[in-house]
From TrEMBL:
Chain ranges of the O-acyltransferase WSD1 C-terminal domain: 323-467
Gene Ontology biological process terms from the UniProt entry: biological process involved in interaction with host; glycerol metabolic process; response to hypoxia; response to nitric oxide; triglyceride biosynthetic process
One GO CC annotation: plasma membrane
Family listed: Belongs to the long-chain O-acyltransferase family.
The enzyme's E.C. designation: 2.3.1.20
GO molecular function: diacylglycerol O-acyltransferase activity
Protein name from the UniProt record: Diacylglycerol O-acyltransferase
Pathway recorded for this protein: Lipid metabolism; Glycerolipid metabolism; triacylglycerol biosynthesis
Domain O-acyltransferase WSD1-like N-terminal: 5-279
Family matches, as InterPro entries: Acyl_transf_WS/DGAT (IPR014292), O-acyltransferase_WSD1-like (IPR045034), O-acyltransferase_WSD1_C (IPR009721), O-acyltransferase_WSD1_N (IPR004255)
Amino acid sequence: MSDRLTSLDASFLYLEESTTAMHVGSVMVFQPPREGFDYDQLVGIIERRIGAIPRFRQKVRDVPGRIANPVWVDDEGFDMSYHVRRAGLPRPGSDEQLQDFVARVQPRKLDRTRPLWEVYLVEGLHDGRFAIVTKTHYSLIDGVNALDIAHVIVDAVKGEDQGIDPVPWEPSRAPSSAELFTEAVVDAVRRPTQVVDLVRGGLNDVLNVGVRAAESAGTLLSAVARTAARPAPDSPLNAEIGTARRWVMVSTDLDDYRMVRKRLARGAYAEDVTINDVVLATIAGGLRTWLLGRGEAVSGPTVVRAMVPVSIYGDDPAGMYANQVMACVVNLPVGEPGASMRLHQIAFAMRQQMEGGQAVGASSLANLAGFAPPTLHALGARLGSAMSRRLYNVMITNVPGPQSPLYAGDAKMLSTFPVMPLAKGQALSIGITSYDGGVYYGLNADREAMPDVDDLGSSILESIEELTSGRES
């Protein structure tokens, strides 16, 4: 039996348009060891480690007639040199030049005829540094069969697997189109509840799927409505987007956020003010300064609505329980002039959602795109894209990382920045990762709608300084 994509994974393929590539990226900056680090070493690291994760040598094949979800098949012509590429920055090799490089390569869609990942070794950064830029399609990352390719490259132990030969790999024969079709029909018959959706192609099926689409959308809207009673406010963060991007990285110190939390977390709910709340308050302050600098009308009630995925972990101290991701909708009080007041308002809003069960479960979000058989996934994708602009202004993801060094071979990773894709109608996405004492922001923006995204990066730095100093604007 073929390894078939889940409805959720398949939906990411159908969500993809020329302006909305559905892959996640990362930019990792390294200090090479004294003896250096080169392209062959990077290829060797990946070759040794992807043997344990077959997905990185598999590609997606559509089923004829799209009567079932696509399947994963081995790429018989797998070419490592296609997926791992080499690039160099001209002198002086500045961070700004690295940002421009990322803005050029990240929006390009991954080749559907090959495994859905790419890695770039970017040489020539000043101070002898180099960067590794990755791209991994959402449909490939399921947390079980495959992870982001960036997690394959780095390790907690310096030079952990050097000298170990890659595991030999022989691809399995790819099934023919006739075999894929027959297998899809047999699979549908074995699951009677899917026969109507996957085999019958009549008008009644389309109508039934339309009803389910409306029900899924209604479930999502009703859940969000508890925290977002009105549509998202008008904002320059929502605009028609093109294919070109600007990308900015911002580096901050984790100790600053800890200090702010300790100093400003006062009162009965002090223990409920989290580092994530401080991060959101920092972004709120940055957005306030950026909006004022643009000449936008900002008054007391002005807010920017953010969709904030939050991981909820089980009580098992050994971490044996799988984590659950909830999506909170929170109004960032950009109209509030006081930095500490912004923090307390955000902390209260987040606590209220989590305690009141008002966070939107990841399964509810998935149902919106994954409700239909493959031929109608595009309908769900368009519906989801149309809704997103009305529900929130910006997506913010904050993922805690390890607080000890990671290595690619003998090269120490100095910093790591996420590159989150833009959804339709969203001019900005913000990804944050904490790592080894730092908090690193990746600001991905539409090139035309937000030519001043670097000003937002500077405003975020001013905002955390305002919080740490206790200065109120």
